[in-house]
């Protein structure tokens, strides 16, 4: 490899290399000079665990700290909150009118400048738990603005945390309060249905079934006895009628104590009945007894009172037997009606038992739900009190954002060095590209390799002084243009179009979207 030849080629292209180097250097130095300072400050937050042991009183907010922080972050970085914060703090108030940003650009820029980082967290599988720390940072053109916005974001995080925890606890309490009220109304409704059902079916309730069966058995026994007594009375009436129709006489069978006249009358009747068996009815003795009997019958009838006045002994006994039979018939009818009622009630008892059991089962189920809802409401009240007193898991500030003394970016020496390095790389690439595209013959060896001839001698191309001066003037103008136009152009863009940092961010965002 002929290093001298390649060195001569490089020296021939040295002006191009220097122009590229000047271009990169001017760009790097100008950008490092024009970029505004960026101040970054951060605040640190700590997610505290619950201050009251969970086995004594548990909070109703059961959300992991990482999930809670993600929810808070998304709520803070909403479009409405970011625009309101930018307007309230005047973050973009100092921009020139021609550089004012629309709401979409403000939201994108704010989200890019706000940094919320979470470290640590609860224990994972195979690892011990660590404290959850939150760092909030903001980039701004002034240290005061960076600290103000960072502390405002911290305030919003604390406020959202309180709102979310108390809101969740309050919603839980409201839910169980409504559930207790609903179940209480349901219990009252079912209880009223049970009461109405028992009132309407009080004669056919399952708890009185044995009592009704005993009543049925007693009434059936009573009915049999009444039927037996009625049969006896009807038999006595039949005998009385037969006796009277046969003999024309009746025996006094009244159960009350007979008067002397009644006893005498009965004795005379018995005596006459005995004589009629052997004597003729026209016998004087028989006629005498009949007269005595008629006299005593009138006396006994007069003693019987006004109600039996004019009635014979036969009629009295017959009326007494008919009255007893009618009373037994009425009692039998009443007992049969009662037995029919008892039978209907006993037959309806299984159906009523099923319906009542359904109502009572529903009542018991609602009662269990009601008791559970009351217990849950009590726990919700405790959890709401814990969150109201800030005794649950909360976020606290361990370090406020302070005004930084020096900007954190841009790194001006690094940007300038990057410009110089970029110029070097661009110059070398330009030289290589020019030589790669140049197919001219430069050495005698090229004549031999390309044309297959061997030259006797070679003469280089010699430029005139005018050509040399013209070439040097062009190179000088190129250097001047690079050293002047690049800084002036970047300054014009920075001043009249858009700040360079915002321009770079837009370009990067568009490239990332592409």
Automatic annotation (TrEMBL):
What parts of the sequence cross the membrane? 414-434, 473-493
Regions annotated as coiled coil:
311-376
Alphabetic keyword roster: Coiled coil, Membrane, Transmembrane, Transmembrane helix
Q: Which domain of life is it from?
A: Bacteria
Protein name, as recorded: Uncharacterized protein involved in exopolysaccharide biosynthesis
Which species does this protein come from? Gemmobacter megaterium
